[in-house]
Amino acid sequence: MESKNNIKNFDKLLENYAKLAIEIGVNVQKDEDVLIKAPVEFPLFVQKLVKASYERGANEVFVEYKDENLLKLKYLNEKQNILNNVHDFEIEKLRYLYKERKVNVINVVGEDPDIFKDIDAKIIAQSNAKKSEKIKEFRKYTMNDIISWLVISIPTEKWAKKVFPNSKESVNDLWKEIFKTSRVDESYEKTKENWNKHIENLNKRADFLNSKKFKRLIYTSENGTNLHVNLPKNHIWLSAGSKNEKGNYFIPNIPTEEVFSAPDKFGVNGKLVATKPLVYNGVVINDFYFEFKDGKVINSFAKENNDTLNEMLNMDENSKYLGEIALVPYNSPISLSNILFFNTLFDENASCHFALGEAYPTCVENGANLNSEELEKIGLNTSVIHEDFMVGNKDLNITAINENNEEITIFKDGIWAF
Amino acid sequence: MESKNNIKNFDKLLENYAKLAIEIGVNVQKDEDVLIKAPVEFPLFVQKLVKASYERGANEVFVEYKDENLLKLKYLNEKQNILNNVHDFEIEKLRYLYKERKVNVINVVGEDPDIFKDIDAKIIAQSNAKKSEKIKEFRKYTMNDIISWLVISIPTEKWAKKVFPNSKESVNDLWKEIFKTSRVDESYEKTKENWNKHIENLNKRADFLNSKKFKRLIYTSENGTNLHVNLPKNHIWLSAGSKNEKGNYFIPNIPTEEVFSAPDKFGVNGKLVATKPLVYNGVVINDFYFEFKDGKVINSFAKENNDTLNEMLNMDENSKYLGEIALVPYNSPISLSNILFFNTLFDENASCHFALGEAYPTCVENGANLNSEELEKIGLNTSVIHEDFMVGNKDLNITAINENNEEITIFKDGIWAF
Question: Would you call B81 exposed, middle or buried from its count of C-beta atoms within 10 A (0-12, 13-18, 19+)?
Answer without folding.
Answer: exposed
